[in-house]
Design the sequence.
């Protein structure tokens, strides 16, 4: 399967998806700093929309409405539509499991829930994503930057997903003949953020950060809000209906792969540096 995908908002996750599709022979256009289109260039965006078979938006809600639907909604008819949403639309469930049948709009992400509903009404596959991690955006990076925290909140549980598995889920939906619907794309092991940080520290052979109260951690309002919700996200629907298979079923496999990739990259950089030095040493 190949086609022409227009991505609104070529961010971290959408860029991974774009790379996979281009490798498979797709034409991919995108707005955003790393894209080839300016969101405000209506003439060029509408020209791309006219030839696109598929459209995906990763643009977050604005203060008022959804930027993509508000500006380009009339040109989306007849396209395969996808929207990267958030499991935050489910709100706080006190640690209980939630699937796609759970009510939305009761949590702190009220604007996201409104946009989630609007994209569903427009006929989009809505991908509800928990905490996203991957190379360059993982517990390793937070530890290295001094941003890693262990918060003393017994029973607090989050779901997460590796960015590569999000791309696999979206591609599976694009290839399916199923009608548009919401999909939870989360890994198999909801757990505390503390467990992830502690495991990453073990892999790095460094001590974990101290255990702190939520007040003492000095978190930003956004980060603090993250800890005020507690839920486990069920992924069975995507597995059953899309045939989605997780390459990284838990954070352990995901962090191990990131660590291995970093070690390979570091080894290549060392080898390149040694080769350069050797060449300089014996240069005539």
Sequence:
């Amino acid at each position: 399967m190949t086609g022409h995908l227009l991505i609104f908002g070529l961010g971290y996750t959408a860029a991974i998806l774009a790379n996979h599709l281009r490798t498979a022979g797709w034409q991919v256009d995108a707005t955003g700093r790393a894209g080839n289109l300016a969101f405000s260039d209506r003439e060029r965006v509408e020209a791309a929309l006219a030839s696109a078979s598929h459209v995906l938006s990763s643009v977050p809600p604005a203060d008022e409405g959804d930027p993509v639907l508000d500006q380009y909604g009339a040109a989306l008819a007849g396209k395969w539509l996808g929207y990267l949403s958030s499991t935050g639309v489910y709100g706080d469930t006190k640690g209980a499991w939630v699937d796609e049948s759970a009510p939305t709009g009761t949590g702190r992400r009220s604007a996201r829930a409104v946009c989630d509903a609007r994209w569903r009404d427009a006929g989009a596959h809505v991908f509800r994503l928990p905490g996203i991690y991957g190379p360059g955006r993982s517990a390793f990076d937070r530890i290295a930057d001094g941003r890693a925290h262990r918060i003393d909140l017994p029973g607090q549980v989050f779901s997460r997903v590796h960015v590569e598995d999000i791309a696999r889920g979206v591609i599976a939906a694009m290839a399916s003949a199923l009608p548009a619907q919401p999909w939870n794309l989360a890994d198999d092991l909801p757990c505390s953020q503390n467990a992830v940080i502690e495991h990453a520290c073990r892999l790095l052979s460094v001590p974990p950060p101290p255990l702190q109260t939520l007040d003492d951690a000095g978190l930003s309002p956004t980060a603090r809000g993250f800890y005020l919700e507690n839920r486990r996200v069920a992924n069975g629907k995507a597995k059953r209906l899309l045939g989605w298979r997780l390459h990284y079923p838990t954070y352990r496999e995901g962090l191990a792969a990131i660590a291995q990739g970093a070690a390979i990259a570091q080894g290549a950089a060392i080898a390149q540096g040694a080769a350069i030095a050797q060449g300089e040493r014996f240069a005539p």
